[in-house]
Model the fold of this input.
Amino acid sequence: MKRRMGLAARPFGQGRAGLLVRASELLTAGGAVLGPCSARDRRLAVAAGAALLAGSAALRFGVFHAGVASAEDPAYTVVPRRERLWRRSRRTLDGAEPVLAEFRDCLSLSPLSARTGRS
Done:
């Protein structure tokens, strides 16, 4: 999921969202490993189920917190929109996919200057 998102995937690795997503990966992997081992032991089956459930909940809350973080920072909303518009306009002109590095400079702006367009 994060590989295809590009710039918008950054909040998934930072802060509370990053912690929850990482915990989700670990809990899900632990539950997946315990699942086949729990064929005869009910306690292992319960532990595997609990780990999978906790991993799912952690991922859900991690996605929520990443969405909140990306909505608070205009770089995650403005830059991808500008890139899409620029790609569409370039496609209609010559059919080529240009390099989009010039729009990445918005990340270095402060939130106030990114909102107002002033440096």
Notes: The chain has two domains: 7-72, 74-119. The CA atoms of residues 64 and 103 lie 26 Å apart. DSSP finds five helices and no strands in the chain. Helices lie at 2-5, 15-37, 42-72, 75-94, 111-116.
